[in-house]
Amino acid sequence: MSAATVEAPTLTPSAPGDHDRFSHFARADQIADALVFGLAIEALCGKKWVPTADPSRFPVCPACQELYDAMDPGTEVP
Ligand SMILES: [Zn+2]
């Protein structure tokens, strides 16, 4: 099992006043739990937020993208 299991970018925070509107990469298992239970998770870049089910509305977080690209090349890239 890869230590860098990362999947579909998830959504940005929707908190009022939060201007950091990007889709972040996070661990797939955390995303799954977050979507089911409404939990906050931590993105690759360190951002903590509660993801929603529609990541396509926002551009991918540059910091997350960079970290993602630096990962295991065997990881599937969207
Ligand atoms: Zn990010």
What does this entry look like structurally?
- The chain is mainly alpha-helical and 78 residues long.
- The chain has one domain (1-78).
- It contains two helices and two strands, in the order H-E-E-H.
- The chain has helices spanning 28-37, 62-69, and strands at residues 41-42, 48-49.
- Strands 1-2 form a two-stranded antiparallel ribbon.
- Strand 1 (41-42) and strand 2 (48-49) form a beta hairpin.
- The longest helix is centred in the middle third of the chain and has 10 residues, at 28-37.
- The radius of gyration is 12 Å and the shape is globular.
- The model is unreliable at 12-19 (pLDDT under 50).
- Bound molecules: zinc ion.
- InterPro entries: DUF3039.
- It holds the Pfam family DUF3039.
- It comes from Galactobacter valiniphilus.
What are the salient characteristics of this protein?
single chain, 78 residues, mainly alpha, two-stranded antiparallel sheet, 2 strands, binds zinc ion, DUF3039, DUF3039 domain-containing protein
Number of helices: 2
Distance between the termini: 19 Å
Q: Ligands in the structure?
A: zinc ion
Q: Please state the structural category.
A: mainly alpha
Largest sheet: 2 strands, antiparallel
Blueprint (SSEs and pairs):
Layout: H1 28-37, E1 41-42, E2 48-49, H2 62-69
Antiparallel strand pairs: 1-2
